[in-house]
Amino acid sequence: MPQLNPNPWFLIMLTSWLIWLLILQPKLLSFTTHNPPINKPSTTLKTSSWPWPWT
């Protein structure tokens, strides 16, 4: 069965993972976001209890 022969495809997969890990990933992780998150103060909403008619 030729599809079980990993000879040509294993080298291609290994090369592509090494390119991703060593070249592309550090370049992508070095970008800064254009819209960084803002630390907004947490506002707590005042809630009132529900006026149940049967109590």
UniProtKB/TrEMBL annotation:
The keyword Transmembrane helix applies. Its main location: mitochondrion. GO terms for biological process: proton motive force-driven ATP synthesis. GO terms for cellular component: mitochondrial membrane; proton-transporting ATP synthase complex. The chain crosses the membrane at residues 6-24. It holds the Pfam family ATP-synt_8. InterPro entries: ATP8_metazoa, ATPase_protein_8. It is a single-pass membrane protein. One of its GO terms (molecular function) is proton transmembrane transporter activity. It is found in: Mitochondrion membrane. Coiled coil: none annotated. Keywords: ATP synthesis, CF(0), Hydrogen ion transport, Ion transport, Membrane, Mitochondrion, Transmembrane, Transmembrane helix, Transport. Belongs to the ATPase protein 8 family. This is ATP synthase complex subunit 8. The gene is ATP8.
